[in-house]
Amino acid sequence: MLALAPLLSMILGIPLLVDRPTLPDSVALEPLVIAGRNTSMVPLSWLRNRRIDAGIEGRCNFTPRPDKSAEQKIQMIRVIGERNSGVDSVANLLGRMFPNVTVGTGFTRGKFWFQSESLLIHQGVRVDLSKVLVVVVLRDPISWLRHFQKSPLHSPAHVYSTKNGWRSFLSKQWTTVTSSVDQKFAAVEGAKCQARYLSGQVLPCRQSRFNMVGNEQYNNHLRRMTPVYEMNPLNQSPLNNIMELRRHKLLNYVNMTSWVPNMSFVKLDKLVQASHLSKLKQVLASHHNLDLCDSYGSTPLTLQDPSFQAKLPPISYEQLNFIKCNIDWKSEKLFGFSPGYLDPSKISIGRSAEKLARAAELSAQQVAAVGDGILMADDIECSRDPFAAQFSGHHVVGAERLPNRNHSRRRHRKG
Q1: What is the mean pLDDT of residues 354-367?
Q2: What's the pLDDT tens digit per position in 162-208?
Q3: Strand partners for 349
């Protein structure tokens, strides 16, 4: 019930223990000073926001930039990505990796939200991105959906659906109920809403910040659960489900490449591998001429993300098939994800592979990967073309409960 407190207050229109309304932050521009001279104008918050894990002991094992005679091409790194994608962990990693670069999260909006080119202009002055690198953190769709169901940040309307099981969570419309007061306020065209959105772009439009005196842990929990439901950026209507949210977010990242000069995309699950982490350091350092920390004392640089220790229940074959038939693999393919892209360390099947294969009537040749608790078939037929499917909010491909094959066979033998 505590997780639902922000949602209930928005429905009733009575904020509980309000601190102050959360409206768009004013975007003050400040000069970015390099070698004693002003080079560009950037948001003041970018200069203040520096995420470095201060808990690492020992001095940095410093590797100077490749071209010592030239300055670093990048002075700032802004890290963004969807919730439950490891944005904060990657930002801390990059802050330790490149000590002479100011690293922070968020870009034109907060780290989780849709980014917009129009927000780069403030009082007729455009933010200069020539010295800014935007890093987008991505997680494979199956792991991302499972972690999101476990921790539905800023989506309290989906907390209850997580208790109803994965099918309800995945098919529930991506929206929330708002108060009549908020609806009237959002009806004003061009009204400023939370997270630098305008009316029609987010629900609820206005947000209240909650505070309980003397309980900062509970306050942090409430802030993480305050509702922020982004609307379809194409028609400002509610998104049909969380998988459609992911599709539009991926397309937003693709669109950003047309107006952000320096962008990099990293996969969270790959960064736990030493070879990929080493490649990331080498590519960014050489391409942007950056000073580098290979390690701190005897402590090597590694990615530490709390979600890696999260205990998730075994995933069923039905759930894998359901996701596979409803994820937009066309947009996923742009970032190297495919139906067979699985992280063996994060996904386990509840039943053995042999039982699953028999239950699904799949031959050994049809199974794409069996081992480490993984089973995924690339040729499973969905009930209809997932790319042409028109979601209705509560109905998606595979939403109907599949027949119990074992039960039907037992009845046939008895007859």
Answers
A1: 39
A2: 666 888 899 999 999 998 999 998 899 999 999 999 999 999 998 76
A3: 315
Burial state string for 314-329 with b = 16 or more CB within 10 A and e = fewer than 16: ebebebbbbbbbbbbb
CB distance 78 to 47 below 8 Å: no
116-125, 194-203, 241-250: least confident range = 116-125
| Count of other CB atoms within 10 angstroms of residue 299 | 12
* Conformational region of residue 157, where left means phi above 0, alpha means psi within -120 to 50, and beta covers everything else: alpha
**Inter-residue contact 4 to 11 (CB < 8 Å):** no
Counting every residue written for the chain, the total comes to 415
Hey, how many other C-beta atoms are within 10 angstroms of the C-beta on 206? 21
Rounded CA-CA distance 264/220 in Å is: 30
Residue the block writes with tokens 């937009």? 328
Entry pTM: 0.75
Cα(279)–Cα(218) distance, rounded to whole angstroms?
40
Task: Provide the 3-class DSSP secondary structure of residue 257.
Answer: coil
Provide the β-strand partners of residue 31: 41
The Cα 21–Cα 161 span in angstroms is 28
Tokens in use for 263?
């962008």
CB atoms within 10 A of CB 134: 22
What one-letter code names the amino acid at 389? Answer: A
Residue pair 44/28 in contact by the 8 Å Cβ criterion: yes
Sign, CA torsion 96/97/98/103: negative
- d(Cα 8, Cα 285) in Å, to the nearest integer? 48
254: which 2 tokens?
Answer: 């693709």
